[in-house]
Amino acid sequence: MNFNKAIVLGNLTRDPESRTLPSGQPVVSFSIATNRVYKDQSGNKKQVTEFHNIVAFSKLADICSRYLIKGKMVLIEGRIQTRSWQDQSGNKRYRTEIVAENMQMGPRGAGDTGAMPSQAPSQAQDEIPIIETEELPSAEEGEEGVNVKDIPF
Questions:
Q1: Residue 152 burial by CB count (10 A; 0-12/13-18/19+): exposed, middle or buried?
Q2: Cα dihedral 105, 108, 114, 117 sign
Q3: Which of 3, 64, 68, 109 is most buried, most CB within 10 Å of its CB?
Q4: What are the residues whose beta carbons fall under 8 Å from the beta carbon of 5, sequence distance 6 or more?
Q5: In a 3-state reduction of DSSP, which class is residue 144?
Q6: Architecture of domain 6-112 in this structure
Q7: Residues 95, 75: contact at Cβ < 8 Å?
Q8: Confidence at residue 108, expressed as pLDDT on a 0 to 100 scale
Q9: Are 13 and 70 in contact (CB under 8 A)?
Q10: Predicted local distance difference test score (pLDDT) of residue 13
């Protein structure tokens, strides 16, 4: 059995680009930046950013094009796919992307008015906030694990 599932939580690096396939099916593409913050061997805080290409089809494409804007946080669930084609000069090109199957918008920011993108202020966020994960315990830190009695449900 094989399994191909990708889940990313990050911020849009650009507004979604909408187009229509020859079959009439809507498709939207955008990219998401995810950050990983860690400490190196000397204890210095380091940050690595990864960029993920996302593509969505049909109804999900319509929803993404309406509600997602640059800088906003979004969670995408989907599958990883690599396409290949020949460019105009005859070179073989490749693009790896996540084909979205599910999308969940992130929380509204402090400056977010809740307006639709068409009504949103014209100034887009230039900086993408860092998603901190330092608060999460790791098994390497000698944590004893989760006590079942501590779970609130």
A1: exposed
A2: negative
A3: 64
A4: 77, 78, 79
A5: coil
A6: Beta Barrel (2.40)
A7: no
A8: 74
A9: yes
A10: 95
pLDDT band at 107 (very low <50, low <70, confident <90, very high): confident
Name the one residue in this structure whose structure tokens are 């939207």.
28
Cβ–Cβ under 8 Å, residues 74 and 65: no
Residue 118: per-residue pLDDT: 46
Structure tokens at 3: 């399994």
Tell me the two tokens of residue 16: 């979604």
Task: Report the predicted TM-score, pTM, of the whole model to 2 decimal places.
Answer: 0.67
13 vs 129, more confident = 13
Query: Which of 109-131 are b and which e, b meaning 16 or more Cβ less than 10 Å from the residue's Cβ?
Result: eeeeeeeeeeeeeeeeeeebeee
Q: How many angstroms separate the CA atoms of 81 and 99, rounded?
A: 7
Cβ neighbours for 131, distance < 8 A, ≥ 6 positions apart: 9, 10, 34, 35, 37, 73
Tokens of 112: 């977010």
Q: Is the pLDDT of residue 76 over 80?
A: yes
Scan for tokens 């790896």, then name that residue: 96
Q: Which residue has the tokens 């979205």?
A: 100
Task: Return the domain boundaries, the chain.
Answer: 6-112
Q: Is the pLDDT score of 153 beyond 60?
A: no
